[in-house]
Write a sequence for this structure.
């Protein structure tokens, strides 16, 4: 391996340390930042995410409010809860764990959250603010990627960035953030022609596809920085499973200048950025300055 390993686990610990510092200062002013997480149904993966989020929220000194609703919860009941959380002064961040059961309209539910408390950054107002370069709540996964890129490169200005994937959760906001940092941005997707060629021109590659090892090493320009967002569970020896990214890590790390591993790259940064967004929301709600180093 010749590439520098971008250690998301260590970086996330640093971000959480910064968050904890801000929480301490807020508590000294009599303010405790609070994050409410709403889980509808009993999806196993969502259960794990929600448990981890609650644990880390408490670890940084914030208040954690978990709301678990039955799988067959009706829209009006969920909307009622969101209204109460919107009005609750102890709640600065609200996260509705996705996916919701199919009978619930997630767009409607997300857009019912007070945009100032929308720590996932999925509310249509925050999407618009980000798209127009205004202060917003930024989706956690792309924010984590941006933080790692800024830390590694310093300035991103003028670099060619290719984002593979155009989802609302990762690809599109990632592209907006890179544009905001003056990269020349290409968004590639399932209909992109000559993807190998497009990727070979990139100084920065962000892969958010959801296919194990989709990006081979020979697509990577020598010295490029590779951020692997993919989380894919594959069969491993002995009937076990293991997590891999969207990039062929072994091959890409022989060519790239820097690369994030999976696991231990983008994943830990996502929860750290959720906590960062909650502190940001809390500071804004109280008319305090933006917490340094935690926003886009
Ligand atoms: P998604 O399924 O919504 O989007 C995938 C994107 O990949 C689509 O826009 C599609 O156009 C593109 N794509 C599919 N096939 C392609 C192809 N052959 N060539 C080029 N592009 C192609 O997925 P998502 O929610 O954006 O997530 C992507 C990956 O990131 C998944 O593995 C997911 O688990 C992971 N993820 C990780 C985190 C984290 O915290 N690390 C957070 C969110 C998502």
């Amino acid at each position: 391996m010749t590439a520098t390993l971008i250690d998301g686990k260590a970086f996330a610990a640093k971000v959480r340390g910064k968050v904890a510092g801000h929480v301490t200062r807020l508590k000294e002013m009599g303010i405790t930042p609070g994050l409410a997480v709403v889980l509808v149904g009993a999806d196993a993966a969502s259960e794990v995410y929600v448990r981890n989020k609650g644990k880390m929220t408490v670890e940084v000194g914030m208040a954690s409010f978990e709301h678990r609703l039955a799988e067959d919860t009706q829209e009006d009941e969920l909307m009622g809860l969101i209204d109460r959380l919107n009005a609750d002064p102890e709640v600065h961040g609200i996260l509705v764990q996705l996916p919701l059961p199919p009978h619930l309209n997630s767009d409607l539910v997300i857009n019912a959250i007070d945009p100032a408390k929308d720590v996932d950054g999925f509310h249509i107002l925050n999407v618009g603010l980000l798209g127009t370069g205004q202060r917003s709540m930024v989706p956690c996964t792309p924010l984590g990627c941006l933080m790692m890129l800024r830390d590694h490169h310093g300035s991103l200005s003028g670099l060619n960035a290719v984002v593979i994937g155009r989802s609302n959760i990762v690809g599109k906001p990632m592209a907006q953030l890179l544009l905001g940092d003056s990269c020349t941005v290409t968004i590639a997707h399932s209909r992109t022609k000559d993807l190998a060629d497009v990727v070979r021109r990139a100084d920065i590659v962000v892969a958010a596809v959801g296919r194990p090892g989709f990006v081979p090493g020979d697509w990577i320009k020598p010295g490029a920085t590779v951020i692997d967002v993919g989380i894919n569970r594959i069969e491993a020896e002995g009937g076990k499973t293991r997590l891999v990214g969207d990039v062929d890590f072994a091959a890409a790390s022989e060519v790239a200048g820097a690369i994030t591993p999976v696991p231990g790259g983008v994943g830990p940064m996502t929860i750290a950025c959720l906590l960062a967004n909650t502190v940001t929301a809390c500071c804004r709600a109280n008319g305090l300055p933006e917490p340094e180093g935690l926003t886009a």
Remarks:
- Residues 141, 164-167, 169-171, 188-190, 192, 195, 208-210, 229-232, 266-267, 270 surround nicotinamide-adenine-dinucleotide (CB under 6 Å).
- DSSP finds ten helices and eleven strands in the chain.
- The two ends are 31 Å apart (CA to CA).
